[in-house]
Here is the input.
Amino acid sequence: MLKNIFPTKIEVIENFLNKEEIDDLYSHVKKLSYIDHSVINGDGKSTFTPHDSNCLEGNKLEKKINNEIEKYCISIGIEKSTIDLCWANIQKKDSFLKMHHHHYSPVAGALYVKTDDKSSRLCFQNPNTYSLITNYVADPNPNVICYNVNPGDLFLFPGWLHHGSNYELNKSEERIVLSFNCK
Ligand SMILES: [Fe+2]
Here is the structure.
């Protein structure tokens, strides 16, 4: 019998936010202060600072996201976790998000605020490094799995899971995502 052992569980919730919530969040993140961020290659900025980023402070969406994080924690069998650090990234045309991970966060997430059909996707890399030497004949190669991203979509995943755009260039004029780490 074929068994699927050591699976990596991520949560993908399309349309987590409605149109009004997306518009409110867009207005909110556009008022924040942006600086360079090492994970963005090319024209892009972030509100990220390593210890005190909380781009959702006082925003009613924080509770809504934390409720979903709690459900995710229960479904994958880990202790309850809530948003600790939160930041926003704005990428312009021809930038890309380097593959990276969120260190020791039990749960990390991405909530898309502004994208279009030219936006780079969100890709996850197989965390089993030994699998990279496997000569897969399956197409697409299962070592990288990419998702299209639309405004209002929420992704939750283990913080140790490498993700980024897999060197795919963003071709939209403005791609905005809110990212967070939990503790
Ligand atoms: Fe990330």
Remarks:
- The mean pLDDT is 94.
- The domain at 11-182 is CATH 2.60.120.620 (Jelly Rolls).
